[in-house]
DNA sequence: GTCTATATTTCGATAGAC
DNA sequence: GTCTATCGAAATATAGAC
């Protein structure tokens, strides 16, 4: 599988010959299925892209940001499940950032490549939600990725489900500040 | 600067010709300063490596893990400062994982390349500290990286110092669980 | 669909003059 | 220390038979 090779050696250092060999046939046969090497990466990218629902758009709907905190909580839980069960696909993106970025810039795949990261960026940029809370949201993503991605190496002996549960708890504490009163006046405290 | 090019396009897609051009001379001149292309990457790697003190070894010292929580807190604060003031160097590692990994495997640089990630791995693997707490420690690293790395794009308009402060607060809440009694019996709660 | 060539290009690295 | 010129290797991609 190309996915494994890309994760082990990186996209650039993986030749079509290697991919073909692992698949059981020769390099030339690959060109029957994919027009360019880039297209193999694109196929993998779209596979991940299709996993992420349009929950993000819900975050954009409310102008005051009142509901965003709870919506985000749902979103991050979805993310944890997805990362846990599609670790390799997420790993591909994290370990091959330059290659994925090159995909977006490619003259081919212009329209097809609607980027998730782009939506994230504009969301985090808008001042609808207090900055401190946006930082915590961004932190939660990093926390989930860091733990669940490194799972194969760092927490190799821990079952994925248990790990996912622990990150969920941790992220929950991260998302709800100690003195919640400063952020959501009237909310129950500790 | 090679560092910028590596961060923009990735190590593999950056040719020596490009690097030389940005530096003002030709490709061949580079070979007077570096024997191999790999050595340019190594130089950058060592630059980051020298920033990280041997605080990690302190974490290994106590067998019960009692002090680890506080030591970790210090460690993560150091990390926040370092990432904030050396963003590009950390970015290089995050965005060029396969290339950095190849560095470690290279026949040259065998002894010179003592890896930081290796130490982290063995630390997180040992059951001296409760798993839930180790997950929170790993989460804190991911959180710091996620926010401070993406700073250039996501939180572009926020001063780095302010951003660092906000992550520090967030990570602090992450590191001290809501019901601390389960982890550190006798510790003051709330 | 998969094969055996082969074309084409790019890149890392070297040789040797200045 | 930097140059021009070139080598050799490896990779993407194509042509055409089966």
Count all strands of chain A and give the number: 0
Our estimate of the beta-strand percent of chain A is under 5%
From the helix content, strand content and strand pairing of chain A, which structural class follows?
mainly alpha
Order of helices and strands of chain A: HHHHHHHHHHH
Number of helices of chain A: 11
Number of structural units classed as domains of chain A: 2
* Rg of chain A: 19 Å
Helix content of chain A: 55-70%
Quaternary structure state of the chains depicted: homodimer
Broad shape of chain A: globular
Chains forming the largest contact: A-B, 50 and 50 residues
Low-confidence stretches of chain A: 182-190
Q: Describe the main β-sheet of chain A briefly.
A: none
| Mean of pLDDT of chain A | 88
Instruction: Give the termini separation of chain A.
Output: 49 Å
Q: What does this entry look like structurally?
A:
The structure is a homodimer of 190-residue chains. Helices cover 65% and strands 0% of the residues of chain A. Chain A has 190 residues and is mainly alpha-helical. The first copy, chain A, folds into two domains: 1-35, Arc Repressor Mutant, subunit A, CATH 1.10.10; 37-182. In chain A, helix 1 (2-9) packs across helix 7 (87-95), helix 6 (68-85) packs parallel to helix 10 (131-149) and helix 6 runs antiparallel to helix 11 (160-175). The longest helix of chain A is centred in the C-terminal third of the chain and has 19 residues, at 131-149. Chain A is globular, with a radius of gyration of 19 Å. Mean pLDDT of chain A is 88; it is low at 182-190. At the A-B interface, helix 8, helix 9, helix 10 and helix 11 of A face helix 8, helix 9, helix 10 and helix 11 of B. Chain A binds a DNA duplex (18 and 18 nucleotides) through helix 3.
């Amino acid at each position: 599988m190309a996915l494994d090779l890309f994760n082990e050696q990186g996209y650039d250092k993986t030749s079509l010959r290697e991919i073909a060999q692992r698949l059981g046939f020769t390099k030339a046969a690959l060109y029957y299925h994919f027009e360019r090497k880039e297209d193999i990466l694109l196929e993998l990218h779209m596979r991940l892209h299709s996993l992420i629902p349009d929950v993000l758009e819900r975050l954009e709907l409310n102008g005051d940001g009142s509901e965003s905190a709870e919506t985000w909580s749902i979103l991050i839980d979805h993310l944890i499940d997805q990362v846990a069960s599609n670790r390799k696909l997420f790993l591909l993106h994290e370990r091959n950032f330059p290659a994925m970025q090159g995909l977006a810039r490619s003259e081919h795949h212009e329209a097809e490549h609607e980027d998730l990261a782009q939506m994230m960026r504009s969301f985090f940029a808008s001042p609808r939600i207090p900055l401190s809370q946006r930082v915590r949201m961004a932190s939660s993503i990093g926390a989930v990725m860091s733990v669940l991605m490194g799972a194969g190496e760092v927490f190799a002996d821990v079952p994925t489900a248990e790990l996912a549960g622990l990150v969920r708890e941790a992220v929950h504490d991260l998302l709800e500040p100690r003195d919640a009163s400063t952020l959501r006046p009237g909310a129950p405290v500790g």
